[in-house]
Amino acid sequence: MAVKIQWLGHASFKVTGCDAVVYIDPWKLDDAPKDATIVCVSHSHYDHYSAEDIGKVSAAETLVIGPADVAGTESNCRQLGPGQTTDCGGVKVTGVASYNPSKQFHPKANQWLGFIIEIDSMRIYYAGDTDLIDEMKQLGEVDLALLPVGGTYTMDAEDAVQAVAYIKPKCAVGYHWGDIVGTKSDAQRFAQVAECQVKLLTPGQSIEISS
After folding, report:
1. How crowded is residue 81: how many other Cβ atoms within 10 Å of its Cβ?
2. What is the residue-level pLDDT of the chain in tens, covering all 211 positions?
3. How far apart are CA 100 and CA 11, in angstroms?
4. Which of 105, 97, 99 is nearest to 153 (CA)?
5. Model's pTM, two decimal places?
6. CA distance linking residue 125 with residue 179, whole number of Å
7. CATH label, 3-202, candidates 3.60.15.10, 3.40.640.10, 3.30.930.10, 3.40.718.10
8. Which of 2, 21, 24, 146 has the smallest set of CB atoms within 10 Å of its CB?
């Protein structure tokens, strides 16, 4: 079965499988589909953790997954840390490290997250707000890597290219550009140099991946 991944802008994605819908860091959404099986929140910065936007996608049974500083403020939220795995609705979500080694914006001590999302036999890596880190070398097989490319608070395009060399995904998408920091040219530089297939999306566009 194909898995559909829609970029909602900035760092937000919607992942749709056969029986589950996963949102990642929903923010600035125009509609309220209330169709989420799971909402994954990487960390508590306002452009990643938006209670308003979580409400737009959540139904009564929606599970929110996030680090401690998110789990403490959301109902029906399951706390996750790097290296921990949880299952819901046939989807396996594993927390992975996501941090700035030498900048103050996203300290490693905060235990903020990226995610490996396993849905319909596909493994999708969402890096979160991170710089290039050694933990990316231990992710295992990745079908699709979602990587920040905008710089300043995260990796830039050149670091994302190096991340691809670490991860060796089958396909990649650059995000964290077009709002707050980063421009389309950052995503284009990444797409031109990365040693894997890169899909250059605009907000609202989707791709499908399948085995």
Report:
1. 13
2. 799 999 999 999 999 999 999 999 999 999 999 999 999 999 999 999 999 999 999 999 999 999 999 988 887 899 999 999 999 989 999 999 999 998 999 999 999 999 999 999 999 999 999 999 999 999 999 999 999 999 899 999 999 999 999 999 999 999 999 889 889 999 999 999 999 999 999 999 999 998 7
3. 17
4. 105
5. 0.96
6. 21
7. 3.60.15.10
8. 2
User: Encoding tokens for residue 137?
Assistant: 């070398």
32: tokens are 């309220």
3-state per-residue secondary structure call for the chain: CCEEEEEEECCEEEEECCCCEEEECCCCCCCCCCCEEEEECCCCCCCCCCHHHHHHHEEEEEEEEECHHHHCCCCCEEECCCCCEEEECCEEEEEEECCCCCCCCCCHHHCCEEEEEEECCEEEEECCCCCCCHHHHHCCCCCEEEEECECCCCCEHHHHHHHHHHHCCCEEEEECCCECECCHHHHHHHHHHCCCEEECCCCCCEEEECC
Query: If we measure between CA atoms, which residue out of 36, 88, 37, 79 comes closest to residue 57?
Result: 36
User: Per-domain residue ranges for the chain?
Assistant: 3-202
The tokens for 173 are 């998408």
